[in-house]
Amino acid sequence: MSHEVFNRVAEAYDAARPGYPEGLYDALSTLSSISLAGATVVDVGAGTGISTRGLLSRGARVVAVDPGERMLARLVARTASAGVVVGDGNALPLRSGVADMVCYAQAWHWLRPEESFKEALRVVRPGGAVAAWWNSVDLGTTASTSAADWLVAYEVRLAETCPGYWGPALPHWSIPPVAAVMTDEGLEVREAWIPWTRDVSVDEFLLDLRSHSFVASLDDGAVERLLRRERTQLLKVFADGELTVPMRVYLAIARKADG
Questions:
Q1: Over 90: is that where the pLDDT of 186 sits?
Q2: Which of 75, 155, 166, 174 is buried most deeply by CB count within 10 Å?
């Protein structure tokens, strides 16, 4: 179960996972035509509250839903103004039509695709929206960007070391197909890529790595060997211990029909 894996690394997840750029929250409002200020938003798979806090900062009323009690405990410790529900995104413990928006930040791929999306449509009001987004490193996959050699090498090493790795170093990697599920439900989908740059220390970057499922599922000895190796490799490039990481966020959003 994904929540059991993440519960084991809740502290690392909370301390080091990247947030989302302001452009992501701008795009949420623009593409949905829903102002986040005053909106009721259900944050499915909220984890330790990274997206929850971003939504709250824009004035939304947020209900955070996650099956991981340890993850939610971290959220509650830092995010007093959020409503919190221990629950399954495949069967949301919420009434129908109570939300202006249901969102999945880095979470939809852990759920049963069609089932979870139908639940989101049930919970969102007519005219409301369902949105999903994912952070990813940017390996220069667009015409306007070029690959950072160190980042490409880093991702390749992870792919070669971690059996569960799923990321842009794999030729068949892609963003989870949430847009296709939205389209299959007869909804018009709007998509966006939001580029941004993350400035982070080597220590925090490696703590973030520890929180990823393909690393958290390794045995303790393998994790420590991996982190030692990556520290050595990264410090060869960033001798001062400070990294600049090219990132981008993929967003897909669809509105439920009025009435």
A1: yes
A2: 75
